[in-house]
Amino acid sequence: xxxxxxxxxxxxxxxxxxxxxxxxxxxxxxxxxxxxxxxxxxxxxxxxxxxxxxxxxxxxxxxxxxxxxxxxxxxxxxxxxxxxxxxxxxxxxxxxxxxxxxxxxxxxxxx
Length: 111
Description:
Shape: globular
Number of strands: 3
Largest sheet: 3 strands, antiparallel
Low-confidence stretches: none
Number of helices: 5
Helix content: 40-55%
Distance between the termini: 45 Å
Structural class: mainly alpha
Order of helices and strands: HHEHHEEH
Mean pLDDT: 92
Strand order of the largest sheet: 1-3-2
Radius of gyration: 15 Å
């Protein structure tokens, strides 16, 4: 399966509208977990694999390849993955969503 990139058709958009492409990429299994684990800084493949408990190495490798190709992540010379400048902006934009989810969880779990 090709990496979702703007201008390429994805689920829900034959024209590859950027928002639809981003949602397709973020909706792929394990992508959000990988981004979550990288929130505090770069990690090497093995550490990411350990933190993402049930993810197979082949799926992790594929997702990292997609995120690098989409220029959300980059690997340094030592093989550690980290957010690019654009990826870091995405990480910061997702923070309010996390805050909303925490608030929502408190509301849902209170009597």
